Amino acid sequence: GSSNSSFMVEPELAGATLEVLFVGGALLTAAQDGQETKLDPITESVALRIARTFDSGVLMIRFKPGASAGNSHQPWVVTHLDPSPALERLLADRPHLLVAAYDQFLDWLYPPDSNWRIPIVSVTGTNGKTTTSTMVSHVARAASLHVGLARSTGVYFDNVSKVLGDKSGFLGHCMVFENPNVDIAVLETARGDVLRSGFAFDQSDVAVCTNIANDHLGQHGVETVDQLAVVKRSILERSTGAVILNGDDSLCLNMLPHLHGRSVYLTSFQENAEVVRQHAPAELRSDLRVINVETRTDSDWIVLHESGTATPIIAVNDIPATFNGAAHYNISNAMQAIGAASALGLDLAIIRHAMSSFETNFDTLPGRLNIHDNGRFTTILDFAHNAHGIQHLVDFIGKFPCQGRKLVCLGVSPNASETAARGVGIAAAGHFDYYICGSKTSDNPNVKVDTNAAIRQGLLSSGVAENVIEVIPDQDRMVYHAISLCGSGDLLVMKPSYSAIDAAWQKILNS
After folding, report:
1. Which of 329, 342, 499, 501 is 20 to 30 A from residue 288's alpha carbon, by CA?
2. Are 182 and 146 in contact (CB under 8 A)?
3. Residues near 206 by beta carbon (within 8 Å), at least 6 away in sequence
4. Residues 371-391: pLDDT tens digits?
């Protein structure tokens, strides 16, 4: 086995398995072969010593039957230590213990009567959460703050990756909170994990809702966009400071009567800030801030209106992520990030400087409008996976220079409904010359929807010819095939699955 000065881990042994779970330094539960059990004094003493040595928020220790050592009998030996166990899996059949684990963990992070709070920015919405969260993080780092960022691609500390994977929920947020060096937490907050696991924070300082669109319906009891809006509103209701809402989205505006007592920022493409202000209830209008896009000196500017003063922040064309204004949705994301940064009290000069250097390259934002030109054709990698996202993407594609054909690989979540998948096909129809339906097949045997067939049906019903549609559910083959179809001057738009994105990007770079 391997060892240090405090304990030894033995190689895997045969026999019964004893799993002991510590949360916040305290014993939560012990189970032998899946059945809860009481620890004998010797094993409990060893486990407690290990837990104190690790001093981690969560620790699972696995024991196996041992042998006699000297004159004393050691009934169990340590064979495995996991300082980041999957609690939802370990305690799946004991939900009461899962709740107790979360409570115990939070009490460890924030002991009662102690003030260990840091500013928290939570970002929700159907599309744009990851980009907006990353923009806020970028501005905060420009203000010399140590930033913990949890988003759908992982957890990052000062832009350095700690762990990859979707961390836009409870466990990812806890990873940010347990780092003592973090000055501010920026948390992409997904509705799915809120419904599954609840919140890792009792309150935030700033909350953002980018937009609300038809997506993920039929999951976790959410059947309509109005119900979806209520879930996302619960995230904003946790803010005790400011909320930033998309003022061009009626479902976001419908939240306003529930958000009294908070500073409200509305973002909008409406040039007249007073017209935007009229969308809010009368009692909120006097303190309402508006961030909009206005034409000034022949350029579009993002302007902040507050306390009767209009302050130009930055020209749209000076934000690289907007591609000279062609990426309309990134203008919206930028307005919301500027609102969050302003609500945090960050200096406008710092906000302006940070936004002027924000790009959507693969290293910064994998799968968010990443563009590669290999000299023969251009590839755009983007995660647009619902009709709302596709509509924004095709609007951008319509402004993107292309001398040849336009090809697209379309995909949705493996668990998407038939209606949602068909909607993606309808939204993309007529904007490309060739279509490949490349959704990953669901691993869940209970999922009966053939999402690729539904996307194809959406295309056909919108007038796309059958001979320009292919279905290739294998991700590797889809990427290779799509690249092989491209000729000089072509534009390829690709949407791989989350798990295949790194491999897809390498194939694009090598094309």
Report:
1. 329
2. yes
3. 119, 120, 121, 122, 239, 241, 242, 243, 244, 340, 343, 344
4. 999 999 999 999 988 999 999
